[in-house]
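Trying the structure run again after the queue cleared.
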Amino acid sequence: MTKRLYICKLWSAMFLLAGTAVVSASERMTLEVKAVRRALPSVGNIHTEKAATPTNHVFNSEKARKINGMGTGIIIDDRGYMVTNYHVIADVDTIRVDIEDENRMKSSYIAKRVVFDREHDLAIIKIDGSPSKPFKVMPCGTSSDLMLSERVIAIGNAFGYDGTVTLGIISYLGRDVEANETVSYKNLIQTDAAINPGNSGGPLINMDGEVIGINVAIRANSQKIGFAIPIDDARKVIAKLMSIESLDRNSHGLVTKDVKSGSDRKLIVDGFQSNSPAALAGFRAGDIITKAGSVDVVDAVDLERALLHRRVGESVEITILRNDKLEKMSLGLAQYTGGRAQLSGDVQVTSRANNDESDRFWSQLGLRMVNLPASEQKSHLSNTKYRGGMRILEVKADSPAAANGIRKGDVLVGLDKWETISVDNITWIMNHLSGQTVSADSPHQVKFYVVRAQETQWGFLPLTQTAQQPVPRTASLGN
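Done. Tokens:
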């Protein structure tokens, strides 16, 4: 009896061991393993070198020393463009990037610094590979739906140990951090995944292997407190750094906005610059750009890199979603002739909110207008009492405005007894006056005020009846 019981126990133990072996073999391929395998080929391990600055340039007889640095980068374009932290590559003489492929085979490249944003601590560098073997772009997630305690993985060149992987959770969202007396960060992701010197610029990924943050800082003399820039914030900066205006001195004229809310991620046309390729192509505010050339578009970074290094005049097929239908458009590129100063005030933008009203002003008054930038108010209005106005961009031939002496370049400062600082002001005035007895046969005459060469001039415009809409009231001119 005792012997039989012993044999049964022995067979049971062997069965359990065999079952355990089978289960453990299947469970080794965890979400973490899959996530790292997906992301790792897009991670660059950065090694930098710069000359030490001698304390005494005249009498120092020591041989020049080299200071080695380390960091991490993320491939954002298959031609070898990478994003990293500015502080990783600031003031260095050489940048070497090591990348491991899916088979853990390492390749080394010499990188060049392309452009940077010191304020947001981000920079673009580039490595050159073989055209026949494009680099693997890091899968991009979103930071719009991150959750406290969500598992995340940091990958980077920790203390110079290439491709180090650490696991943790999201400890806090929206953390503001002062790194030192001159550097501070806003809205960071805090994680307890081990982040060490050398991780800077590398990815913080989710369990799908998508980058959701760029590791940027650690808390000195602490454990399990590290920080990352949310990827949605970083991508807005990257889009400006990768813009074709910045890198190619070309222009498309589109004004877009990223919309990211969980799985809902899209790039929406918010407007376009006057007389730009986008205006000529027929884009409308509200169009959703889904593809540019062969690049699937989720945000402005995708659009800019799809248009990067194309020739002036070259047409690119753009796929848009308009009224729930996919349409294809041809977008050409023009040479960018503006400058930074002009971007702040001289580029005319037609926004989605103003599209309908702009058409209305053109059809009823014969005017195309834009808000007078604050930077120009002094030169145009310094000798007047006006707080602002609308600069006239174009006057339609044979229109009421043309017939009554309004010229391109004038600043419209008032209609009737109200100021005209914004589109909303003019809309409210026109709607308000339409409540009076007005018809096409008997138009109401509204007094207008324009400033030309710092002198106020006035006249009358016929105003036909329009549908009344609730728009915020303007301030009175006091005339």
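Confidence is low (pLDDT under 50) at residues 339-354, 437-442, 465-479. Worth checking whether this holds up in the mutant runs.
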